[in-house]
Amino acid sequence: MPQDGALPASAVAGAAGRPLGFYLHVPYCATRCGYCDFNTYTATELRGSGGVLASRENYAEMVVEEIRLARKVLGDDPRRVETVFVGGGTPTLLDAADLGRMLGAVRDEFGLAEGAEVTTEANPESVDPRYLERLREAGFTRVSFGMQSARQHVLRVLDRTHTPGRPERCVAEARAAGFDHVNLDLIYGTPGESDDDWRASLDAALGAGPDHVSAYALIVEEGTQLARRIRRGEVPMTDDDVHADRYLIAEEALSAAGFRWYEVSNWATSDAGRCRHNELYWRGADWWGAGPGAHSHVGGVRWWNVKHPGAYAQALSEGRSPGAGREVLTDEERRVERILLELRLAEGCPLDLLAPAGAAAAARAVTDGLLEPEPYAEGRARLTLRGRLLADAVVRDLVD
After folding, report:
1. CA 145 to CA 125: how far, in whole Å?
2. Is the pLDDT of residue 66 over 50?
3. What burial class does residue 147 get, using C-beta atoms within 10 Å of its C-beta: 0-12 exposed, 13-18 middle, 19+ buried?
4. How far is CA 77 from the centre of its chain?
5. Per-residue pLDDT tens for 218-252?
6. Residue of 174, 117, 107 lying closest to 147 (CA atoms)
């Protein structure tokens, strides 16, 4: 990774024709959830080598420095930014003014496209009505709350600190603050969760009135507290059949409430409610990820930052890119990634992306009820409901 972060000419060629987004990572959390393996830190103050301070108090300025670096690296790139997504961690542990400063740097250095989508994730316990009003005043257009479950015993297994009912109130507060677009994140398949618990969570989420719901199957990552508890036999592991049943329950409830899936784990009430930033990822567009451990992609070049906030701060203080490494994707790798990602979308992926073996697998998948026959006849591979349950297997067949 060059110290100045310079990109090869191939990465910026034709950039004007591709959408550009920014992901801004905030690595701080009040507590660590038992299932989480994200690049997060619970300490409010961290030091890196050379004594460079990496704390919540000066974090926004570090991200601003990387945004300025992005401007230098991308040079005279004429694109305005179409989406900004602040994730974490818990971004709303920072003062709303700090999130506004980070957004302001993107606006100052690149400009925001008309109608740009600007999202922040939020822990329900970390915001109040005034905080949400300040976010809206700063230019945020969308907020995503981590709800996970409406049942206390499920939240306890996940080590979530918010109380049941608080995420639903947050939706109302966000609406009152002027947010048209609000998401609730849910997790299904937590050890000890029943079908009735999951239905109750869906009912509570839908009753709150968001226009977007994300529902993810719990993945138990090695090295997490939850993985250790399962290994010790303290809580049971949930199997794939349970995950499939919960997904079907979600699809039924969300569809009945007027939501439509547009990605395997995401539903919205309208096209305007879809998360346009995530669609950049799924469609292989360009985005710059700023912050410790953040990943970026521009024109087939992917890179990632150093993980520790202290090392991140040290690099920027010395005028260096915080990038830890990068890879230049081959045409074949980019083709495979398009299949992997676009097949998850409701629009599906073009059949002309498939190699002969993959095309033969797609024909079999139609016969097996995994791909929709009408889109297939029109040249696209689109998952059926059964295909969504087996999406990873379908992708493997089409890629092979």
Report:
1. 10
2. yes
3. buried
4. 25
5. 866 566 666 677 677 776 777 889 999 999 999 99
6. 174
* Per-residue three-class SS string for 301-323: EEEEECCCHHHHHHHHHCCCCCE
Picking from 54, 136, 127, the residue whose alpha carbon sits closest to that of residue 100 is 136
- Give a three-class secondary structure readout of 82-126: EEEEEEECCHHHCCHHHHHHHHHHHHHHCCEEEEEEEEEEECHHH
**298, two tokens:** 């521009």
pLDDT in tens, 350-362: 999 999 999 999 9
Q: How many helices (H) and strands (E) does the chain have?
A: 16, 16
3-state secondary structure of 394: helix
Q: Where are the beta strands (DSSP E) in the chain?
A: 20-26, 45-47, 53-55, 81-88, 112-122, 142-148, 181-188, 212-217, 260-263, 266-268, 286-290, 295-298, 301-305, 323-328, 349-350, 380-381
Q: Which two tokens stand for residue 202?
A: 């869906």
Question: Can you say how many angstroms the Cα of residue 390 is from the centroid of all Cα atoms in its chain?
Answer: 21
pLDDT tens track for 158-199: 887 778 899 999 999 999 999 999 999 999 999 889 999 999
User: Length of the chain in residues, anyone?
Assistant: 400
Largest CA distance in the chain: 62
207: how many CB neighbours lie within 10 A of its CB? 12
Q: What is the pLDDT of residue 68?
A: 98
Contact 117, 287 (CB under 8 A): no
Question: Is the model's pLDDT at 391 over the cut of 60?
Answer: yes
Backbone angles phi, psi at 276, to 5 degrees: -70, -30
Q: Copy the structure tokens of residue 95.
A: 């003062």
